[in-house]
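Dear support,

I submitted the protein below through the web form. The confirmation email said the job was done, but the results page showed an empty box. After a refresh the structure appeared. I'm attaching both so you can tell me whether what I see now is the final result or a partial one.
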Amino acid sequence: MVGALLSPRRSGRSTRDWIVDGVLFALVLAAGPLPATGLFGDDPMTPARGVNVALGVLSCVALWWRRRWPVQLSIVLSLATGVSPASDPAGAAAMFTVAVHRGGGMAAAVAVVNLLMAVPKMLLFAEAGEPWWLTPLLTTFGTAVVISWGMWVRARRQLVQSLAERARRAETEQQLRVEQARRGERTQIAREMHDTLAHRISLLSMHAGALEFRPDAPPADIAKAAGVIRSSAHQALSELRDVLAVLREGDLDDAPDRPQPGLDDIGDLVASARQAGTPVAYTREVEPPEDVSSAVGRNAYRIVQEALTNARKHAPGRPVSLSLTEADGGVRIEVRNELSRASSAIPGAGTGLVGLAERASLAGGTLEHGATGRGEFRLAAWLPWRSEDR
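What the results page shows now:
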């Protein structure tokens, strides 16, 4: 408390502070020293009245330093009110300042000093026939009003500051959420790029390998393989360019949405695999509801794409069966291919199936994969039409 009592307040004043202090000085001067001069009555000026007016004026002038030393000044002015009624308005203003800026214990200490001054007031200024308890009562009432008003103003200011801080914190948290959403979208785009390029590059590798090992192939087959290579390379570059353009955008919300593949595009994916030399038996017995999210079709497309890419890597040229059926309020995807000791030389990151399992889990579905007892590798996934159906 001693440290708080002796620590000075800032002395710099804003324009608003100067206006408030000037208006306050004029009010306390008009309420205290000016009436005490007797200018508005017939009472003559006496030495006692002169001392009262002088102390009142000094108290009003001292209020200009109430922001710098509020507690010390309030105590001094409270002591002055004990011998100078003209100092009462200035003492009340100083006590109000303490309640607003220091609150709590400091306000209580200043209030006690002000209440003790009721004793000299009663002894020096009580009129004949006036009840002895009137001056203490008025002093107590005035002190309670000033302190209560100051504490209310302090509480209101703290509430406004708290609301402003909460608003700033909410804005900051919203910005963080937006940034996290952007990062998540960029991560999703990067995964899409991996799935797409893995499929396209596997086609390039397969046909380039065929040209390398069959240089004596008929010109028609070589031209066909070269056409597939050119088409796949063009599509891979185009998709890579689109993805990188989105990733370089400063604000993903302003970037146009790229067309995303869905269930209806799986047929083109199968046709591309067949063209690359992988016999695919494709069966589709499912139609999505009209209000289904596009994410379901996109996830199904990526799962089939990764499954066909893996089949082409690890069992090149072997038959693959793909079926899409409706089950349990969703779509079931099943891909089977023969196990083969032969494998293409296409390198892989080894995380394709892990990524598929994560994709299915985030969509509320399931994914299973592994070898069967019939010499096949089976991948089965189920995706709900709606996430709440999980």
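Response: this is the final, complete result; the empty box was a page-load delay. Residues 263-390 form a domain with the Heat Shock Protein 90 fold (CATH 3.30.565.10).
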